[in-house]
Design a protein that fits this description.
Bound molecules: copper (II) ion
Strand content: 15-25%
Distance between the termini: 28 Å
Largest sheet: 5 strands, mixed
Radius of gyration: 26 Å
Number of domains: 2
Shape: elongated
CATH class of the largest domain: Mainly Beta
Number of strands: 12
Helix content: 25-40%
CATH architecture of the largest domain: Sandwich
Strand order of the largest sheet: 3-2-1-5-8
CATH superfamily of the largest domain: Cupredoxins -  blue copper proteins
Number of helices: 7
Length: 316
Amino acid sequence: MSEGPPQSALRAAGPVAETLLEVSGVLAVGGTLIFAGVMLLLALAMRRRKGAVNARWWLIGGGLVFPTVVLTALFFYSEWHRPPWRPIPPPGALIVGVTGHMWWWEVRYRDPATGAEVVTANEIRIPVGRPVYFGLGSADVIHSFWVPSLGGKMDMVPGRVQHLQLQADRPGTWRGQCAEYCGEQHARMALHVVAEEPAAFDAWLAAQAKPAATAATSPTSPREVERGREAFLAHRCNACHTVRGVSEESRLGPDLTHVGSRLHLGAGTVPNDPAQLAAWVAHTQQLKPGARMPSSGDRIGEADLQLIAAWLAQLK
Ligand SMILES: [Cu+2]
């Protein structure tokens, strides 16, 4: 199996994750040293005769003074390193809203040009070197937002908005995962964070803000693309999916306006390409059993499936 994007707190790629890694390192090394010290004392004690040492001083020193000093020091050390809790975003931060659904992630930005909402799913693009302030919510049960290489973890609780700040210091792609068991497909509730240089990010956001458009260069003919759009509407995919500029809003499923620009389908379940798109629509319940989308393979003919997949694939 080829190695996917990193999902490891040991591979920190930004200031928050680096701080967490440092604090964990200090805890691990300190804990090991203390453990080794206690074992050494135990070994020595077992070889001594009874009454040869002053047990009272060992009790006070090792049992009271030492833990008090160590725990107090640790308290101040970790407080000093704790990322500040911010009820409001820091100046200059990018604000991203993420809502957990069973079992996918809705992602919202604001278009800096118009202030309009820009909705996407399962993939979060961010600019390198800029703090990203997340507002996290849930549409159903408790989920937890966690991208270990970029920073801490935060529960997504229905009826509340929680906050988390992350930052990436270099371009790259990192995997994240829902970290609170949320039902049948909890394991296939992954997300990807793609950090890009600010100019590339701005261009991406501007493109995402636009309504769905037919690609200038598409492997399929314009007529086929048009028929794909018609088949999507005829088979009522728009009952659950928004395609801005094509159908009314519906938020039961991921926004598909620019689905062709994403890396994966089904919250990391399969890579995104035209063949996988057709397979996903036909065999949703085989690829992700329990997903809140019906399989359409026995309802929609092969020709229409291919047309829909080709149309979706070119929505970049
Ligand atoms: Cu989950």
